[in-house]
Amino acid sequence: MPRIFELAMSDVACTNSSCRGARRMFRVLWDLSDLGAVQEAVVATFFDIYEDGVLDMIVLSRVGGKGELAIRALKNNFEADAYFVKVIVLSGLCSNDCPEKVKPFGVNQPGPYVMYTTVDSNGNLKNASAGQLSQSAHLSLQLPYTVLGLGRSANFLDHLYVGIPRPPGDTDIRKQEWTAIIPNSQLIVIPYPHNEPRSWSAKLYLTPSNIVLLTAIALIGVCVFILVIIGILHWKEKKADDREKRQEAHRFHFDAM
């Protein structure tokens, strides 16, 4: 029986002539010892276990050549100052008739299309797109949401477009646009009602990270530094006022004599 092993590939810029048309290529990462230690893998998929925007890996493998299966989770320890945005498009449906003034959430639906446009650190226009749950059968194990990488550009997303499938025979485009989306955040889109994109709503959740903590520490440090300077200047001004008062008192006594 041939041995089955796992490989992880990284999407990098093209470095040879065979991929110049696509400008991208896959590079095999051979130095992943934890992934190589998993024997007889059946299927592997990415999943954000810690909800921090870094995609970890879940591997389904056979145990000791038996028919039993085991699930292993591998944490992604790759640290990079890269940004992301996570989008999940819900169904916007209720199990029964929706109560009045209650907006239905539903569950994540297959088929939505997500695209963004932004400007990178070099001032060039950048866009990317992805689909949500393009396949749900045959053990596909796709993510229930869409994770879009932004690279090292911390700029706001200028435009974020979300579209959902339409019924057969319907010609209306079901697409809505949101602007100024914050990086490292999660956007939950509620397409209700389906045929009125202007009524769709979105909820934005920020993902806490070390950058937020460092920013808070830097802000507190700047405030403390400014307070120290203000205190020193106030102390010097008070000493100068006391000196002037003493001089005025001496001058008054001298004039009285």
Tell me about this structure.
The chain is an alpha+beta fold and 257 residues long. The chain has 3 domains: 1-79, no CATH class; 80-208, no CATH class; 210-257. It is 20% helix and 33% strand. It has 2 helices and 13 strands, in the order ββαβββββββββββα. It has helices at residues 33-36, 210-256; strands spanning 8-13, 24-29, 41-47, 56-62, 69-74, 83-89, 113-119, 125-131, 146-151, 157-163, 175-181, 185-190, 201-206. A 4-stranded mixed beta sheet has the order 9-6-12-13, with no helix packed on it. A 4-stranded antiparallel beta sheet has the order 8-7-10-11, with no helix packed on it. A 3-stranded antiparallel beta sheet has the order 3-4-5, with no helix packed on it. A hairpin with a 6-residue loop joins strand 4 and strand 5 (69-74). The radius of gyration is 29 Å and the shape is extended. The termini are far apart. The relative contact order is 0.11. The model has no long low-confidence stretch (mean pLDDT 82). It is a single-pass type I membrane protein. Keywords: Glycoprotein, Membrane, Transmembrane, Transmembrane helix. Residues 104-205 form the T-cell immunomodulatory protein TIP C2 domain. Its main location: membrane. It comes from Conger conger (Conger eel).
